[in-house]
Amino acid sequence: MKLLCSMLLFLIINTLYSQNSIKGTVLDANTKEGLAFVNIYFTDIEKGTSTNEKGIFTIENLPSGSHTMLVSFIGYETKSLKISIPNTSNITIDLSPTAIEMEAVIISTPFHKLQSENVMKVEKQSIKTLKANGAVNLADGITNIAGVESVTTGLSIGKPVIRGLSSNRVLVYAQGVRLENQQFGDEHGLGISDSGIESVEVIKGPASLLYGSDALGGVLYINPEKFAETNTRKADFSGNYFSNTQGYNTNAGYKASKDNFKFLFRGSLTEHADYKTDDYRVTNTRFREQDFKAGIGYQVNTFKTEFRYNVNNSKLGIPEEIGEQSTSKTPLFPFQNIANHVFSSKSTVFFNDSRLDVNLGYIYNDRKEFEDDILQAVLYMKLKTANYDIKYNLPKLGKFETIVGVQGMNQLNTNYGEEQLIPDATTNDFGVLATSHIHFETADVQLGIRYDNRNLNVDSGLQKDFNSFNSAIGVKTNIFEKITARVNLATGFRAPNLSELTSDGVHEGTNRYEIGNNNLKSEQNFQTDVALEFKNEHVEFFVNGFYNKINNYIFLSPEGTVIDNKPVFTYLQENAKLYGGEIGLHIHPHPLDWLHIESSFETVTGKQDNDSYLPLIPANSLTNTLRIEFEKPWFKNAYAFIKLRTTFNQDNISAFETSTNGYSLLSTGLGGDFKLFKNIATITLSGTNLTNKTYINHLSRLKPDGIFNMGRNINIGLTYNL
Fold this sequence. Notes:
mainly beta; Immunoglobulin-like; Maltoporin, Chain A; 2 domains; 5 helices
């Protein structure tokens, strides 16, 4: 640690004597005219600007070495360029017009490349797009991403399901650090607001090589909003109204950046009454959420750092049965009161041809559950987690880009309530990894290996150690000029969590008595992913397929007995397999570039080796969307869409589930930018479940009680930029 601090201090001082900059011009490849407002962004330095009206840009205070520069503009191809600093000081870039939508850099994979350059297929969606489709919150929004669903308890509580796997098999990252908030619970949601979030990335498949235990099923990587560009400042506020719940959310933010320092902050408030179906309001699905995010950054030539803080306080009603019919927004008993604090720091030291990334996090989750008006928490748990992620990007050696790193976590669970579901315990994780991206003329190869150890110490005396080696290899190549193929093979693992090993009590949110099994072994899986993609100026088509073999799959099973008038469930293990995939078609016929016809189908099947089906497997679904984009002198970046999502019957169910009928939901929306009082405002209008269909999603935790999901909802939103 002393050596690291000395190195950082030396490099900061060294920047006083080294100033690098780059100047460039971006031109239309056909007309050779300068393009204004083109985005220029160095992905590893996290620094960017825009071109002026002549297509000229300048960026100063750049570290020496080889860096990736992204050049993007709507209606033009996105370019990813390797720039050598200080060897390159002036550059001219030609962009060719294209009907294919702009690409984004993928942050969740270690080499931060465009999706077209990535060996692993990663889905990425902006929060702006998800909200434009009528999403009520983040958990609702991610279900618009192919292969992703959500286990829900009303509107307020939702947790991601990736290709049939959920809970502690899906790892959530926010602000660049691992988010820990008692994910084992069925009624424990994300604990994070979509306010101040820029985009969401989804790794579908084992990501244990990159993230360790609990990433066996995939990763939901949440990217916070960027700081303002150098020497600029921005402010905005927004509001959304939801007709179904008579709910609203508001948020306001401000950010500014100078040559070296930058900062931002954003606050939001959300309130919803009980959601309404065609027949009734679902009692106690009401909730209130307050969220505040802040960040400060400092950057000089060879060193950059940022610190972010997020506090999310939620008061969430827990629905049990249909009762009081009102539009009150104050939760009834029982309810949860959750405060989630996320502290993170993200620093990079740039050497001439390499760099060191250091990410540190501290997450404090304060969870209380109240059952009656005594106002004493029946269930009261505090989870304190410190984690670190240190990676060194080695100098590029020929065709090899290589990263080595260490990751770890210290976690303390403490009980304060009169009831105890899981005991006080300490968990320590440690992992070491190495991964390389190899560039060949006709293919790109990525491979890696990792070792992990998890040590669990329960205050009652139980001690457990889990170890695992994992590896991955993937290949991306162009089979033909317009067809790209990706094949990825990876192993993953998940150590049993504290709940699975030690539970002994009533899990109030699920109305059952859970008994853990301290003889559980680690889950270990092997997954094969194959992806084919065709893309030209008229059509995009993709096929993704996967086969996931999981040994020692852990699941809850009813024992057939009763304790405290609650059915007893115990944790068992059995080998299992999941398989399925996604198919998608996007037609944007040239020269009708404003017209988009999109269709996607997703399917997953999960079975034990004894041919019994796994629980909580989402039903097959088909989504068809017609979308248009248009420009008017008074209405910019405008769009309109109509979408029909059909969810099929789910008859492949576990022993203690019931089948679910299929249904179709119709949605529509429109929006765009316009000038209001000399500033830009954005308006969105959307409607979901327009036919007010009564239906039950197979992953709804209210399904056993026959309670319907939400009916028709009209959402109107306005954002104003100061």
